[in-house]
Amino acid sequence: MLDQLRQMDASALDYAVRSGSFRDEFRRAGSKGRRQIVPYLTRERIGELGIEARVALVDSLQYGMTRRYREEGVRDVFLATSGSDLTRLKRLIDRGLDHRDLSQLVYHDIDHADVREEILEHIQRQAVPCAEIKIISDVDDTFYRNWVDPRYPSRTVYPGVKQLYRELDGQEPGDVVFLTGRPGDRTGYLERIFRRRLGGLGAPEASMLTGSFVHQFFHPWVFARKWQNFERYRVLYPEMPFVMLGDSGQADPEFIAQARERFPDHVKAGLVHRVKALEPERLARCQQVGVEFFDTYVGAAIHLHGKGLLTREQVARVADAARTDFARIQFPDETVRAQRLAELETDLADAQASRARVDLA
Q1: DSSP classification of residue 40
Q2: pLDDT tens digits for 231-241?
């Protein structure tokens, strides 16, 4: 395999590494061959590989046992990529179809601390401001009803939430990150099950940062695990602004408030879906640091428009989608439906009053 790679010009090499068969060919090369191929590609000829090929190369190095020479190969790919190209490399790694995302790569698959630190230091040095937004979202009672929210039928995807995430996600989709206390595992088995479930509900393409069996049932532990995941992820994307969304059912209000307080320049907005009332002191603490509360995703869109993160046209599209989504929900009785419709129409009226050009006809 190494002899074949040496005979290729830059264009052929880039195509070969990007091809779907490269990972399998690399795996069949044998231990001795792989140890020669890795430095050849990641040091001698890395400059001839485009960003997509570099992502495919990282994927091949991440797949299977990540011995030190593989970790050093990943490091060399990162160190050879700078500025906006580095941002694109990271985002494409995060858009993979399994659990092998950027966070898994840096914090789990790379076991040697010195290699990890070189990558993280390079990311900090090369951060070039990016206008695209990272959407950090809880799942249960934020994306769909699945825990304490009594207002909607079980497993209901909230009206307008998918459209709101699409509007925030911008020109290059894939910047939604589901941050959840649900348990994960190193093999990615549980995450794959959860991804399939969310995919069936129409969730956008997303990365996932999961918790553990130990942490998922005790409120302070949920907070601690989610905070660890958030801080790690924030370090991976110092160049991108964050919008955070959660719900009032568990630890999200304090979690988002702490993120806004500690990193106000990074976390541009923090929004909490009001699924149950908060104690006055908790509510005041959150509002003090700029956390916004909302009843519907039209209301969330209005808050984001006020912060300059959505245009009037985008708010209008969220409102249209919310009305369409709402009409499809089968409520248990007409009284409950009327209450939810009143909440939605209140926010639609507020959107019109703010001249967001929402068509209420």
Answers
A1: I
A2: 999 999 999 99
Q: What is the dihedral of CA 342, 344, 346, 347, to 10 degrees?
A: 170
Q: Is a pLDDT exceeding 50 seen at residue 215?
A: no
Dig out the tokens for 259 from the structure: 């993120």
- Which amino acid makes up residue 305? H
> Rounded distance, CA 294 to CA 271, Å?
7
The predicted pLDDT at position 191 comes to 64
Residue 277 contacts by C-beta under 8 Å, 6 or more apart in sequence? 248
Closest Cα partner for 18 from 58, 45, 47? Answer: 58
Of the listed ranges 4-13, 25-34, 210-219, the one predicted with least confidence? 210-219
Bridge-based pairing of strands 267-273 and 242-247 is parallel
Beta bridge partners of 209: 179
The length of the chain is: 361
| 144 CB burial (10 A radius; 0-12, 13-18, 19+) | buried
User: How far is 132 from 150, CA to CA, in rounded Å?
Assistant: 34
Average pLDDT rounded to a whole number, residues 187-205? 71
Rg over CA atoms, the chain = 22
Amino acid residing at 291? V
Across all residues in the chain, what is the average pLDDT?
89
204 has a pLDDT exceeding 50: yes
The reported pTM is 0.87
User: Could you tell me the two tokens for 13?
Assistant: 């090499």
Position 250 scores a pLDDT of: 83
Strand partners, 270: 244, 291
Q: Which two tokens stand for residue 276?
A: 């149950």
Neighbour tally for 41: CB within 10 Å = 26
Give me 38's structure tokens: 């890795």
Helices in the chain by DSSP H: which ranges? 2-6, 10-18, 22-28, 30-39, 51-62, 68-79, 83-94, 102-104, 113-125, 161-169, 189-200, 219-236, 252-262, 280-288, 297-306, 312-327, 334-353
